[in-house]
TrEMBL record:
Organism this protein belongs to: Gemmiger formicilis
Protein's recorded name: Tripartite ATP-independent transporter solute receptor, DctP family
UniProt-listed GO biological process terms: transmembrane transport
PROSITE patterns: PROKAR_LIPOPROTEIN (PS51257)
GO cellular component terms listed in the entry, alphabetical order: outer membrane-bounded periplasmic space
Source organism, top-level taxon: Bacteria
UniProt signal peptide: 1-24
Keyword Signal among record annotations: yes
C-alpha cells in the first residue's frame, strides 16, 4: 500500500508541471519549451505485467517519442497496477494526476457512450476486418473527437478474438450454451450478450477464473487463446470453440488537458509513435497466439473446434445490437462510422 501511495505521489509531482504549463522557461505551456535537460514527463499507468505484449509495445512507443523529440518529451510508465486499478487510473487521468493510461475500450463508455460499441458481439467480421476498420481514417477521427469527455485516444492494441471454452463440451451453436454458467467480464455488454445467447452470465475477475473452473462454480469461460496458457485455463478446459464472438480492443488514451499543452508538431510525433507501436504489437500478438495454440494442443491436450455456426450466434445477438443502438445514441453513430470505414475497401 505504501508503495502505491509513493508511486502516486511521484506521478502527481511529474504531472504538476504539465497541468500548470511550466516549461523550460517556466512560462510556456507549449511542449517545444522543454529540453532534454528539463523534459516534459508524461506518466502512463496500466495494470499489465512487464512481459505482456501491450506493455512491450508501449515501451517502444515511449522510446520513439523520446528519440523523435530529442528527449524533450519522455513517457514514464507505471506497470503492474502500481497506481491502482483500471477504473482508478481513469479517474486519475480525469483529475490530472496521470497523463495517459491503457484501458479496455468499453471501460470508456462511462464518459462517452459510443465506446459501448466495442463490447458488442460480431461488430467485426474477422481479424482482417477488425484491423482495416481500426486503422481507418474514420476511426482515427473518432478517437481524437472526444476531447470534451476529458480524453483523446492515441491508438489501440488488439486483444484478439474471444471465444468460448469449457471442460468437455463444444459450443457450436447458441443452444449449446443453454443452462451453462459462463464467466464473462464485468461489463454490461458481456452479461447482456450471454443472456441473449441463452447461457448464465457469471461476472468475476480474471484471477478467480481458474479456481472457479476447477471447483465447478462456472462451467466455462470466454477469452482469447493465450488465456489457455498464460492463465493455465487449458489445464482444466479441454475444448476451445472458435466462435470469435467479440474483438474488444485496448486503447491508449491521453488527458485532453495534457494533449492541449502539446504543440501540433509534437502531437504528430506522439500519434506516429503510437501507431507504430500498434503495428509492432500486431506482430507480437500473432506470435503469442500461435505459440499458445501450439502449447495448448501439444502440452495440455486442448481440442480446438472450428466448425462453429457463427451465423447462428450473429442472429441470436442481433436484437441486442439493435437495443444498444436505441439506448445509446453514440453506438449507432459509431456503427455507422465502422460501416463507412468498410466502404474504403
Amino acid at each position: 500500500m505504501f508503495k502505491k501511495f509513493a508511486a502516486l505521489a511521484a506521478a502527481a509531482a511529474l504531472s504538476l508541471g504539465v497541468m500548470t504549463g511550466c516549461g523550460a522557461s517556466g512560462t510556456t505551456a507549449d511542449s517545444t519549451g522543454y529540453s532534454a535537460e528539463n523534459p516534459l514527463v508524461l506518466t502512463l499507468a496500466h495494470g499489465l505485467s512487464e512481459t505482456h505484449t501491450v506493455h512491450i509495445a508501449m515501451t517502444q512507443f515511449a522510446d520513439e517519442v523520446a528519440e523523435k523529440t530529442d528527449g524533450r518529451i519522455q513517457v514514464k510508465i507505471f506497470p503492474n497496477g502500481q497506481l491502482g486499478s483500471e477504473n482508478e487510473n481513469l479517474e486519475q487521468l480525469q483529475a490530472g494526476v496521470i497523463a495517459m493510461t491503457k484501458v479496455s475500450a468499453p471501460g470508456l463508455a462511462t464518459y462517452n457512450d459510443a465506446f459501448n460499441t466495442f463490447g458488442l458481439p460480431y461488430i467485426f467480421n474477422d481479424t482482417d476486418d477488425f484491423y482495416h476498420v481500426m486503422d481507418s481514417q474514420e476511426m482515427q477521427d473518432f478517437f481524437l473527437s472526444t476531447g470534451d469527455d476529458g480524453f483523446v485516444t492515441l491508438t489501440y492494441y488488439t486483444s484478439g478474438a474471444r471465444s468460448f471454452y469449457t471442460k468437455d463440451r463444444a459450443i457450436r451453436t447458441p443452444a449449446d450454451l443453454k443452462g451453462l454458467k459462463i464467466r464473462v467480464q464485468d461489463m454490461k455488454s458481456q452479461t447482456d450478450m450471454m443472456s441473449y445467447l441463452g447461457g448464465i452470465p457469471v461476472a468475476m475477475s480474471y484471477g478467480d477464473v481458474y479456481t472457479s473452473l476447477q471447483t465447478g462454480i462456472i462451467d466455462g469461460t470466454e477469452n482469447n487463446e493465450t488465456a489457455l496458457t498464460t492463465g493455465k485455463h487449458g489445464e482444466v478446459c479441454k475444448v476451445y470453440s472458435v466462435d470469435q464472438h467479440a474483438m474488444i480492443p485496448d486503447v491508449l488514451i491521453m488527458s485532453e488537458k495534457v494533449w492541449e499543452t502539446i504543440s501540433p508538431e509534437d502531437q504528430e510525433i506522439i500519434l506516429e509513435a503510437a501507431h507504430d507501436s500498434t503495428d509492432a504489437h500486431k506482430v507480437m500478438w500473432d506470435t503469442a497466439v500461435e505459440e499458445a495454440v501450439k502449447e495448448a494442443q501439444e502440452t495440455m491436450g486442448v481440442e480446438f473446434v472450428y466448425d462453429v455456426d457463427k451465423e447462428a450466434f450473429r442472429e441470436a445477438t442481433q436484437p441486442m445490437i439493435e437495443a444498444y443502438e436505441e439506448q445509446y445514441p453514440g453506438v449507432k453513430t459509431l456503427l455507422d462510422t465502422i460501416d463507412a470505414a468498410r466502404g474504403e475497401e
